[in-house]
């Protein structure tokens, strides 16, 4: 689609997950990135791989969306079983585990966090994204524990920010993981953080950009445009922005429009609210799109599949 | 291709007669070049020159108005490929489809929804724009009758979808004065369709699969004298639509194909994929979309996406800074600070209202930036907070000096305490956690300690 010679850049590749041959225990590994044109235009990506769909789960569902808890019942209290179902029943490509228990005033011991990560790794064969603490004071130990528990698995660790990226970078480098680099809906700050990470030794092929995604109706348009701008800048040759992008709009299922919906239509409203941020994020160029409602996975997959002529729409599964 | 002002000037009479309303021919040429004047305003130009100038000075994508009256809407006039380059201009019209095979009651029910259903959201009213009537019966009489049922309900924009000119003629006999959009001129029927469009002054959709065929057919309709065209690339898949719509937008903006300088039509009634098709059309260049009458549960999210994407990126929606009251707060009730980005305000407000804890919300002026971006850019700082507390006379309202900062502003807390002398509590990052925070932390930290609201001055 691009006029001849218009684009000079290519999105860099990042590998997630390690199979047995590579020293891990995952059944698949994904290679994300690699695009050479605007999202979903012919010739952009010959394999039609994008996006990967990650189902988000957590180890403490106190603040997790009510519509998800109603749907999954007892799974909400059991991250390992939840992760297993994400793979077997819900059809996710990735599991993103949020260690929400660290948000509590009385956070559980680090032993427990390490055990949770190990249990989730044992329960699913999918590559994992692990989200550490919200608290800089805990960061160092939490990331070390998680990194260690998943050593050799090529996890994606989250989340590095401009004022707290050292401990996560250290864990990623020590144990062979990639990192999510989050900046507040601003292309220049995204670029700056990538440079900071590179300066302390994190190579570009271990960085996934999270430009921060606001919920539909609550600033989503800013995130949409930042994702479009990142892709555009990367294709124009800016290598500091030529990393794959992750998008997650965590508030989609708890916005007022969902909370206030009549009980009979609340689930459909929730699913549609999540879809109308997730699918546009894919169109804007996100390589990994995170959702929280299990039923969103197939809905998003079907929509993306229809955009890829001839492609089977599923993620390329290098290990299978 | 576009002409520069000086090229246009060479074609003008150079009399400086002022009859066009501009002081000199050169001024007129500059106005023409920027699309702000009409060549018809000059009485001395011959027809051939006028035509040449109209082609060269028209906007890259023609404005097309659909319907008449209060509910009519205009599309076209878009100037960018990405909304971040400036802004998208006219939100796409979304129209509910009915079939002339449906009963009068069924048609009336859909028409009533189009007439009455409104979703208020952050100060705007979201609604679908009109109704599309499809001539599935193939019969002109049945089609005309269906139009009559719609017309009885209300006056709003219509799309008339038929392959046979005879059917469209029967429909136009019912609503020909209301600028319905005619769908569609094809390679087979375009002569008759163009004749109808001209007779009724109605906008016309041109449908052909593939860019070249579409361009060719649009050129024929232009030559037949139809000015208000809409393009339907007749895609088989969403992927084909994305590719075609992107190519049309690009070529139109570059003025490399004037026949493609029109708004784009998208039939989103794809079984099982309607939600995604609507989404794609909103994001990628559709200007008129037809959908089945979707349930409100999934219609509102689509309308919200349209509202988001067509918001001018250079103008964040702002609230007036000041003290806002949630519930009926009295002295001693919590005081929370946030920014004047309207979406932040509405999000926080939603959670505060549902918590049923009366409180004060202080909105400081970050020029519409969110907490995250205002902290990052330094717009939200201790001086702004100190000045806002003074400016809005906060202490006189609250009767205490304890302030809750948003979680993302935690790095400021020490400096804020120093600059203001107020006690600062750091709230959660996520607005959803604010009610629990107030329930627990406020009561424990604020009322138990000192200076807190209960024991404070």
Compact summary:
The complex is a heterodimer of chains A (320) and B (457). With 320 residues, chain A is an alpha/beta fold. Chain A has helices at 66-72, 79-88, 110-123, 136-149, 166-175, 187-199, 220-235, 256-259, 263-284, 294-305; strands at residues 13-16, 30-33, 52-58, 94-98, 128-131, 156-160, 178-182, 207-210, 246-248, 288-291.
Summarize the structure in words.
- The complex is a heterodimer of chains A (320) and B (457).
- Helices cover 38% and strands 14% of the residues of chain A.
- Chain A has a single domain (41-305), classed as TIM Barrel.
- In chain A, helix 2 (79-88) packs parallel to helix 3 (110-123).
- Chain A has helices at 66-72, 79-88, 110-123, 136-149, 166-175, 187-199, 220-235, 256-259, 263-284, 294-305, and strands at residues 13-16, 30-33, 52-58, 94-98, 128-131, 156-160, 178-182, 207-210, 246-248, 288-291.
- Chain B is globular, with a radius of gyration of 29 Å.
- In chain B, helix 10 links the parallel strand 11 and strand 12 (288-291).
- In chain B, helix 4 runs parallel beside helix 5, helix 6 packs parallel to helix 7 (190-200) and helix 10 (274-283) runs parallel beside helix 11.
- Mean pLDDT of chain B is 91; it is low at 447-457.
- Chain B has 457 residues and is of the alpha/beta class.
- Chain B has three domains: 5-57, Electron transport complex subunit B, putative Fe-S cluster (3-methyladenine DNA Glycosylase II, Chain A, domain 3); 64-309, TIM Barrel (Alpha-Beta Barrel), CATH 3.20.20.20; 322-448, 3-Layer(aba) Sandwich (Rossmann fold).
- At the A-B interface, helix 7, helix 8, helix 9 and helix 10 of A face helix 9, helix 10, helix 11, helix 12 and helix 13 of B.
